[in-house]
Specification:
101 residues, three-stranded antiparallel β-sheet, 4 helices
């Protein structure tokens, strides 16, 4: 039983390391606001087009930034869930055969 727990812990660490190396992008207003994050939901880069600043509409920039951040985080969440589901299936997929017999 402890072997299974240790394997699960190792698998979780492997997944976290893999998610750290996957980049997701969230964009708004035709890429005028762009956010890059890891699949572990760590923001790595934010790019805002200069022409948004010349307009002087701070509220618009803030709203677009929120949209881009939420898109990036949603992509990260989707990838993370898919990775965890695959790991769970790998670890416990064989159990389904026990119940089908």
């Amino acid at each position: 039983m402890f072997d299974k727990l240790f394997q699960a812990q190792q698998k979780a660490q492997e997944i976290k390391a893999r998610l750290d190396n996957i980049s997701v992008v969230g964009e708004a207003e035709g890429s005028k606001v762009r956010v890059i994050a890891t699949a572990n939901k760590e923001i790595k880069e934010i790019t805002i087009s200069e022409d948004l600043f010349t307009g002087g509409d701070r509220e618009q920039v803030e709203e677009l930034l929120i949209v881009a951040l939420n898109k990036a985080l949603a992509q990260a969440d989707n990838i993370s869930q898919a990775e965890m589901q695959a790991a769970t299936n790998d670890m416990f997929g064989g159990l389904g055969n026990l119940f089908n017999k």
